[in-house]
Amino acid sequence: METSLFMLGFVIFLALAFDFINGFHDTANAIATSVSTRALKPRTAIILAALMNFVGALMFTGVAKKIGGSITDPTLLDNGIDIVAATLIAAIIWNLVTWWFGIPSSSSHALIGALAGAVYVGAGSDHIKWNGFIEIVEGLIFSPLIAFVIGYIVMTILKWIFAKRSPHTVNKGFRSMQVITAALQSFTHGTNDAQKAMGIITFALVTSGRLDTMEVPLWVKIAAATSMALGTSIGGWKIIKTMGTKIFKIEPINGFAADMSAASVIFTATMLHLPVSSTHAITSAILGVGSAKRFSAVKWGVAGRIIVTWFITIPISAVLAGVICKIFF
Predict the structure, then answer these.
(1) Which single residue of 21, 117, 190, 279 could bond 318 by disulfide (Cβ 3.0 to 4.6 Å)?
(2) Nearest CA among 141, 92, 119 for reference residue 275
């Protein structure tokens, strides 16, 4: 169980690097709609997103404990630190590949899949808590479906309420309100996504014998929150372009509806201690809103490419982590 300080430090570095990449990879989730409708200037939107991500990351730990203890028991792994290293390397590689191609894939899927694959190869299938793994995967699968439905319903209601109003007047009002929803979306992203790195670092501390329980230390919270905020400040422009312009032409009222729908799903999951994909939530909400606006307005070819990436992320990350664990650890 005892691990060298060098190896533990290396794993913590990888976890914070993952969190940093998660920040710029997922910046688009919070600000793509507000940037595309010109409710916020890009630089202003990124600063707002970074600040709210930091605040959100400091406020909750339930998801961190779920990530760190529901897939396997870190106290029972003799090579747990190697498993964590393989997990993070695989998740980082997949995040960078999808970022490079401008595909809004899920950092959450990558991390969960990689952890399961690394445990399977590094410790054996008996060490995987299949019930916990399935529960997490179910949350990851159902959250985008719920976000799609909520987005569709919210947009339908807004269309009905403002049907007789001037589109120019309506969009002017919602453009201002998008500042609030962008901040809310960024806050909820921090409450859920940053906790995944916290969970992995705490997992490493437990499996290395430095902690006895999955209680997240304050320094881990601050480090993860800071890392994600710094990553967010870099921005993920390729993904912003995909999210904000390639799915359908977003107007302020659509952006408001999508952000509110996604934020409600993510924050509900946080309160239930369930890790969900903010990428999936906002993308699905945008698809739902676009479908309510006009089904034919959605570029379903682009949406299909995104959805395919959703389905392949967990298995690819699992295989990649397993291979890395087998070869290097």
Answers:
(1) 117
(2) 141
